[in-house]
Structure formats: structure tokens, C-alpha cells
């Protein structure tokens, strides 16, 4: 049994299942490197295809031959680069290279010759391992390049392709890429046993941000270049990448972990945003929120809920957090940032947002800076407290002065009132004295007038007496 003999699994997202789904029913197919014929059998029995095969491994090829119409098997006829498969001048709807071209010395020449056996509307379906996978780069960074029995660094590979180098080779061989798809496997989950911790922190952060750094295999659909240039074929690309970083929310148990009561979302922290919305079970009372699976500095953190009987989200208080907070910023230097919130009854949606200031960093420098900042903050708080005490003291002095002024004003008003009363009394006494003097003057005048009148009367009498004599 050959080392590439595996069972066909159409439910797994892999290159063989992609090819099996891509080949149209009833097609004429040329399959290079069928191994034990798992795909060959499926194409024949399930899709009614007419399949010819080319397989250099005698044992595997003999097993696959029972499902093929024409078989080129063994070291001579099964050697793709000896071109026995060109001898019948047969043309095909689909030509399949499932992880084969990297084993060939002159893979570009093989592609050129395939043009002779492709039908007018035919296609080539190709899968290749990605030599630019982050795990390979980590190996090279550490001066390592160890072959494995299978996988990206298979010990029978004679060519190593990246996405760009393959597309250039295909174009030079007369083919245009009209479809791209990718199978992704993250570092640490491949046959290359390494991790991001084997390179400096800033290096692995850049690796994580590389487009398609997790792509393990590329799958390409090729057509003759002239067909693509004619403009009647649409190019499709599906190369979504899976991030190393993620946000995760746990419900219920304050300390345990039950994946059935959790939700996670991959994120690219390079974009500086955490934004996750998740449905809640109405009976859950506690939510633990891991903003990102590394140390981080975040700000503008908000946790909002939507309750069953409400139409708008409402903010709720963050009950606990495992970092330091200064102003609007949270500093999680040693731990994965975790927040805890209590969910009111009938909460049906939970939304978490935050801005990532810095992430996955060497915490030593930040810790020192934070310690200095905290010291400065304490100094600022002391100055503020002293200032507030001084303000309170000044307020008290002002209040005392106001009270003293109020008392002085009251004393002054009483004194003024007293002086006014004395003045009024003096005026009354003076007016009474004037009235008395006026009365005395009138009395004197009356007495004087009476005396004048009496004397006038006496004079007149005397005059009369004199006249009589």
C-alpha cells in the first residue's frame, strides 16, 4: 500500500472533496497520481465519468486501474514525464493534479503538454501544498528545514510552490487561473511541529498578520490562457484566512469551561477592534468575556445587552476585570483580558466592543511604564487631594469672613438704629424746646401788647382830661 492511499471523505474540506465536487457528471477525466483510486472510483461510480489514470506506484495503480478505462501504471508508463499518456491523442474535460506537480522535475513542461489533450471547454484542477505556510517560515527563521514523510515538506517533493510562483508558472505554460480556493491549517496543527513562540514576539505578530499565512494547500482551476483572455470566463477567489486571535464568551459557571455554553469569534487585532454579538440563554446570570487570547491594552470597552421585552441595546456595568484601569484604558499585562458581567433576566443578546491599543507584547517595559504612570497618578491624586483640602480651607475662611461680616453688619445696623433713635430724640427735645420758647415769646408779646394797650388807654384818658380842663 502506497503512503498516499487514504479513504475518500467528501464531508471533510480537503482537496479531493473539492475535486470530486468540481468534476461534472459524465466527464472525460485524466487523473494524474490517483494512488489507490479513491477518487477514481467515486468519479466512475457516482458521477458516471470516464477516467484514465497515470500512476507510477505499481501496487496502488493496480488497485485504481479497476475503476479506470485506460491505465498508465508503473515506473515506465506511469512516469508522467515520459508522456505515454499523450500516445492516444485523447482529449479530456478535466485533468486532475491532486498534490502531484510538486513531485515532478519539469512540472511546467507537463502543464504545457496538457494543452494538447484538453477539450475546448476543458479545465485543469490542481492542488499544491503552500511552501509559504507560516510553519515553514518559522522553520527557516530557526535555521531548520526538515523533511517529513508527507505534508508540505514531503521527502519526495522536488518543487516547492507558493501561490505567486505557481500562478507565474501556470501563466508561462499557457494556462490562466480562473478559480482559487484554500485549505487552512494553523501553525501547531500541521505535521511540522513548531509554534509561534519559537520566533520573537514582533516576528510572530507579523506572521499572524500575513495574508494567507495559514493556507496549507491551494486549489486552482486552470483554463487555456486564450479562453480567459476572450473574456467569457469569470475568475473566482475564496482564500478566507483564519486568525490566531479570537474573542470568547462563557456563560454560567464563574470558573469552569463548558464549550456548550460558550461562543468565540476570530479577530484580526491589527485592525484594532473587538466587536462580537452573541445570543444568550435567558436563564444565564453571569458572562465571562475574554476580549482577546493574549495580553493587551484596550480602551472604550462597552458591554451592551438586549432584553426580550426591549427594542434597544442598553449598557451594563462591568462587574470585575483582571487588569489595571487608568482613565478609560484597561491594562492586562500578564493575563488574558477577562471581564465579568451580570446578565439581567430575559437577556437575549450580548454585545461586546473595545478598541485594542496594543496586544501580545513584552510586558516588562509596559509594566515599568505602568508603574511609573501609577506613581505619577498617585502623585496627581495627592496634589488633587491637597488642592481640594486647600479649597475647602479657603471656603471655610470665606464662610468665616462672611459670618464675621454678617455679625459686623448687624452690629453696625444696631448702632445706626441707636444713633437714629438718639437723633430722633434730640430732634423731638429740640422741637419741644423751640415750641416752649415760641410759647414764652407769644406770652411775652401778648403781655407787652396788653401793657402797651393799657398805657395807650391811660394816655388817651389823660389827653381827654386835659381837653376837658
Name the descriptors:
6-stranded antiparallel beta sheet, alpha+beta, disordered N terminus, 469 residues, 10 helices, 26% strand
Mind explaining what this structure looks like?
- With 469 residues, the chain is an alpha+beta fold.
- The protein contains ten helices and 19 strands.
- The protein has helices at residues 15-22, 38-45, 58-65, 74-77, 107-114, 134-141, 163-172, 201-209, 225-229, 363-468, and strands at residues 28-32, 50-55, 70-73, 92-98, 118-129, 175-184, 215-224, 236-238, 245-251, 262-267, 273-279, 286-290, 296-307, 314-315, 320-321, 324-326, 329-332, 338-342, 347-359.
- The strands form three sheets. Strands 3-2-1-4-5-7-6-8 form an eight-stranded mixed β-sheet, sandwiched between helices.
- Strand 1 (28-32), helix 2 and strand 2 (50-55) form a beta-alpha-beta unit.
- The model is unreliable at 1-6 (pLDDT under 50).
What percentage of the residues does DSSP assign to strands (E)?
Answer: 25-35%
Percent helix: 25-40%
User: Span from first to last CA?
Assistant: 199 Å
> What are the low-pLDDT stretches, counting only 5+ consecutive residues below 50?
1-6
SS summary, helix count:
10
Radius of gyration: 52 Å
Task: Please state the structural category.
Answer: alpha+beta
Mean pLDDT: 87
Neighbour order of strands in the largest sheet? 3-2-1-4-5-7-6-8
Shape: rod-shaped
Order of helices and strands: HEHEHEHEHEHHEHEHEEEEEEEEEEEEH
Q: Could you give the count of β-strands? A: 19
Amino acid at each position: 500500500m502506497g503512503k498516499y492511499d487514504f479513504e475518500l471523505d467528501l464531508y471533510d474540506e480537503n482537496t479531493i472533496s473539492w475535486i470530486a465536487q468540481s468534476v461534472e457528471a459524465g466527464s472525460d477525466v485524466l487523473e494524474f497520481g490517483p494512488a489507490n483510486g479513491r477518487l477514481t472510483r467515486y468519479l466512475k461510480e457516482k458521477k458516471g465519468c470516464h477516467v484514465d489514470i497515470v500512476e507510477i506506484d505499481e501496487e496502488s495503480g493496480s488497485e485504481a486501474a479497476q475503476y479506470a478505462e485506460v491505465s498508465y501504471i508503473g515506473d515506465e508508463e506511469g512516469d508522467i514525464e515520459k508522456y505515454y499518456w499523450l500516445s492516444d491523442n485523447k482529449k479530456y474535460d478535466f485533468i486532475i493534479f491532486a498534490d502531484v506537480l510538486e513531485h515532478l522535475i519539469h512540472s511546467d513542461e507537463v502543464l504545457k503538454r496538457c494543452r494538447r489533450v484538453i477539450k475546448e471547454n476543458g479545465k485543469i484542477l490542481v492542488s499544491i501544498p503552500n511552501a509559504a505556510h507560516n510553519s515553514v517560515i518559522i522553520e527557516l527563521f530557526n535555521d531548520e528545514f526538515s523533511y517529513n514523510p508527507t505534508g508540505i515538506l514531503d521527502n519526495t517533493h522536488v518543487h516547492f510552490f507558493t501561490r505567486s510562483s505557481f500562478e507565474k508558472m501556470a501563466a508561462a505554460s499557457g494556462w490562466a487561473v480562473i478559480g482559487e480556493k484554500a485549505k487552512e491549517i494553523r501553525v501547531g496543527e500541521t505535521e511540522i511541529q513548531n509554534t509561534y513562540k519559537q520566533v520573537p514576539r514582533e516576528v510572530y505578530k507579523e506572521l499572524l498578520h500575513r495574508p494567507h499565512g495559514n493556507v496549507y494547500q491551494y486549489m486552482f482551476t486552470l483554463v487555456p490562457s486564450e479562453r480567459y483572455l476572450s473574456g467569457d470566463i469569470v475568475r473566482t477567489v475564496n482564500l478566507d484566512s483564519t486568525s490566531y486571535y479570537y474573542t470568547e464568551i462563557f456563560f454560567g459557571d464563574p470558573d469552569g469551561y463548558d464549550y456548550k455554553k460558550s461562543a468565540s469569534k476570530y479577530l484580526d487585532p491589527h485592525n484594532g477592534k473587538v466587536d462580537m454579538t452573541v445570543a444568550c440563554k435567558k436563564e444565564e446570570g453571569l458572562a465571562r468575556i475574554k476580549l482577546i487570547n493574549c495580553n493587551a491594552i484596550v480602551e472604550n470597552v462597552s458591554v451592551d445587552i438586549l432584553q426580550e421585552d426591549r427594542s434597544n441595546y442598553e449598557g451594563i456595568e462591568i462587574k470585575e476585570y483582571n487588569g489595571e484601569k487608568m482613565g478609560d484604558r484597561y491594562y492586562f499585562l500578564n493575563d488574558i483580558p477577562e471581564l465579568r458581567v451580570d446578565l439581567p433576566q430575559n437577556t437575549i443578546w450580548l454585545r461586546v466592543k473595545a478598541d485594542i491599543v496594543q496586544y501580545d507584547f513584552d510586558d516588562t517595559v509596559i509594566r515599568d511604564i505602568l508603574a511609573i504612570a501609577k506613581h505619577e497618578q498617585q502623585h496627581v491624586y495627592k496634589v488633587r487631594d491637597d488642592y481640594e483640602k486647600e479649597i475647602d480651607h479657603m471656603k471655610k475662611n470665606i464662610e468665616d469672613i462672611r459670618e464675621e461680616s454678617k455679625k459686623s453688619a448687624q452690629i453696625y445696623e444696631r448702632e445706626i438704629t441707636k444713633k437714629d433713635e438718639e437723633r430722633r430724640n434730640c430732634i423731638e427735645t429740640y422741637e419741644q424746646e423751640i415750641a416752649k420758647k415760641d410759647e414764652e415769646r407769644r406770652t411775652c408779646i401778648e403781655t407787652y401788647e396788653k401793657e402797651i394797650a393799657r398805657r395807650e388807654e391811660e394816655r388817651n384818658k389823660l389827653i381827654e382830661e386835659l381837653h376837658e380842663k
